Structures are given as structure tokens and as C-alpha cells.
Task: inverse folding
């Protein structure tokens, strides 16, 4: 195992599209959403400890989740929990983690990944990450993972790659032409049919040298703030310094701030059974179905003339469903959601409306 390899797991989101199971106090990364005995962040941590030492894994999260992180990942120290005082998107949290890692090992090669993705082929994933880390070690590049699309999905960003330009040592790593945000279904179909596009998995690999250079060039206003804290990271002075600079730090994603602008971005085309588990619909595809193609969690659910639904109920709740097709039916902690699967992108709006009408207790 390479002691220069580090991992940053981003675990600060609230997973609003998985409401009402995912709530502000317990977002989806801290839930056993697949019902197999471990939470998504535990799965992610255990995956990456096969690649780098456990002490080299950092969890970036909001300060309110410190206790739940320690409870679910007892192996890590307080120093490995990178607590953001406010949400500022992915570029600031990555900059923050970079400087903490630099204090420990300026020669580090870092993989950055979300905490709430599903990987079905873990051995293939490990192989891809290890080869990618080797590429990042030996080349001045910013490497991202692209997933070969299985369908025209409008819930993912896309990466167009240059099929004619790949690295000599790995013919699955290509130059990137362009990043595209979530497209319409018509455009998504064109992307998939062309064979030139990959889903953007939001997993990155780079050396500290390469990513610091990119921040200095494309996001100097963010880098300058965090640079002021050199000597304070991993010390008692870190927390008060971070609280200060987060008040004025820019809110911007790493994709928009750096990846879409840099000329040394490369994409590793891979297929390891990936899902970002972003919506109830994505979970529906993964769960076992009954004879009517309903995916049901709950021991006392009866369905009549209902098909293609995803149902998630407390184990002691008696539920009778009749005549529903393609619906999401979920109850959790005093909230019941009944929503057409095709309208699941509206769940964020429903959460906002519930917050306005009934307060924070239900979100």
C-alpha cells in the first residue's frame, strides 16, 4: 500500500432528493439505504482503505455531522474529519482538504470521491483507482472518472472525450473535449448514440502539485484564502481560522471552477457497476422486485393492481396500496411522500415547500 496515497471523501450533502428518508439530521450517506447492514459512507470508507492507509482518509463534512461520522467510522481520528462551518460547494472543501494533506505529505497523490455512491464491481473499481493514482503520480494531469453510459439519463453530467488521444500507458484514459451539465432527454439520447460521451462520476485523482497549480491559475481567490492558514492546519488554530475564511469564501464547484477550464484534464473511461444513488428512481433499479415489478421495503405492505412502484415503509407500518403505477411511496419519521416516479426531480421543491409551511422539523 502506497503511503503517498490519500483519499478525500465528501460527506456534507443532505441528499434532498431522497427525502423523507434522507433528512438534515441524518442525510442519506449515513443511512443503510440498501438494507444490507452498512451505511453508504461506511461502504465508501471500506472501499478506499483497500487503496490507501486508513489514517490517510479524510472525511469532509458539515460540523453538525462530526458525532455521526465518529460513530460510523470509529477508526478515524478527529484530525481526519474536515469540518466545514458552511456549505460552499466542492471547490472550497477540496482546497481545505488539500492544505490539511499538504501539512502531512507534500508529495501526496489524492483521490476525491462522494460518500454516497454505489459500486457493484468493487474489485474492478479498486483496479481503476490504483491505475489512475499511478497515472496522476507520473503525469501533470487532473484525472476524472467517466462511466460508460447504459442509457440516456438526464440526471447525470456528461464528458465528451477525444477517442484519438489516449495515454500510452493506459488506452482507457483520454483527453477531455468538453463537460456538459445534465442535458434534456433528446440531447442525452444523441450523446449516448454518438459513443463520444461518458457519465461524469464526480471522482477525481491528482497530485497535490497539479491541483495546487490549477487552483492558483483558475481559482486564486479561493486558494489565497486557504494559503493564509499554512502552519495552522492540523493544529488547535485551524478551526477558528476556517470559520473566518468560510464567511467570505466563494461558493463554486470544482467542475465549474477548474475542471471545465484546465487544459490538462483527462478522463478514465470505466465500467464498475456505478450509480450515484441520487434519486428514488435510481434505487428502484437496484432493488429486488415482486411479481408486479414493485420494489418494496416494509414487512406489512399489501399491494393490489399496483405496478412498478418503489415503496419504503417502517417495518411495523401496515400499508394497503391499490391502483398505483410508477409511484414513489415513502414514510419516515412523521412524513409520508406519494409522488410519481417521473416527477421525482420535484422532490427538492416539495422539501422547500414543507419547510416553509411546517418548519425545519420535517426536513
Result:
Amino acid at each position: 500500500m502506497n503511503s503517498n496515497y490519500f483519499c478525500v471523501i465528501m460527506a456534507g450533502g443532505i441528499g434532498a432528493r431522497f427525502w423523507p428518508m434522507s433528512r438534515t439530521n441524518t442525510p442519506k450517506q449515513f443511512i443503510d439505504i440498501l438494507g444490507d447492514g452498512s451505511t453508504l459512507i461506511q461502504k465508501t470508507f471500506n472501499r478506499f482503505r483497500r487503496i490507501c492507509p486508513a489514517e490517510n482518509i479524510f472525511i469532509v463534512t458539515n460540523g453538525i455531522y462530526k458525532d455521526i461520522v465518529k460513530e460510523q467510522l470509529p477508526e478515524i481520528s478527529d484530525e481526519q474529519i474536515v469540518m466545514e462551518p458552511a456549505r460552499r460547494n466542492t471547490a472550497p472543501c477540496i482546497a481545505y482538504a488539500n492544505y490539511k494533506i499538504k501539512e502531512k505529505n507534500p508529495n501526496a497523490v489524492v483521490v476525491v470521491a462522494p460518500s454516497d455512491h454505489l459500486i457493484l464491481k468493487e474489485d474492478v473499481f479498486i483496479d481503476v483507482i490504483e491505475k489512475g493514482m499511478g497515472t496522476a503520480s507520473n503525469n501533470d494531469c487532473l484525472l476524472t472518472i467517466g462511466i460508460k453510459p447504459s442509457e440516456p439519463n438526464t440526471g447525470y453530467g456528461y464528458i465528451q472525450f477525444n477517442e484519438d488521444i489516449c495515454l500510452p500507458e493506459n488506452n482507457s484514459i483520454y483527453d477531455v473535449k468538453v463537460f456538459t451539465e445534465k442535458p434534456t432527454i433528446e440531447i442525452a439520447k444523441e450523446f449516448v448514440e454518438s459513443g463520444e460521451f461518458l457519465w461524469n462520476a464526480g471522482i477525481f485523482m491528482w497530485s497535490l502539485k497539479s491541483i495546487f497549480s490549477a487552483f492558483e491559475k483558475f481559482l486564486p481567490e479561493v486558494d489565497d484564502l486557504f494559503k493564509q492558514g499554512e502552519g495552522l492546519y492540523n493544529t488547535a488554530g485551524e478551526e477558528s481560522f476556517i470559520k473566518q475564511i468560510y464567511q467570505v469564501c466563494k461558493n463554486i464547484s470544482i467542475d465549474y471552477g477548474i475542471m471545465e477550464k484546465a487544459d490538462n484534464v483527462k478522463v478514465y473511461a470505466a465500467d464498475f457497476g456505478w450509480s450515484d444513488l441520487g434519486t428514488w428512481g435510481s434505487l428502484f433499479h437496484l432493488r429486488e422486485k415482486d411479481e408486479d415489478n414493485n420494489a418494496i421495503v416494509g414487512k406489512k405492505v399489501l399491494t393490489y393492481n399496483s405496478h412498478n412502484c418503489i415503496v419504503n415503509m417502517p417495518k411495523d407500518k401496515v400499508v394497503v396500496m391499490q391502483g398505483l403505477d410508477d409511484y414513489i411511496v415513502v414514510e419516515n419519521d412523521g412524513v409520508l411522500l406519494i409522488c410519481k416516479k417521473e416527477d421525482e426531480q420535484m422532490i427538492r421543491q416539495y422539501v422547500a415547500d414543507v419547510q416553509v409551511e411546517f418548519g425545519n422539523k420535517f426536513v
In short: The first strand starts at residue 5 and ends at 10. The radius of gyration is 21 Å. The first helix runs from residue 40 to 48. The chain has a mean pLDDT of 92.
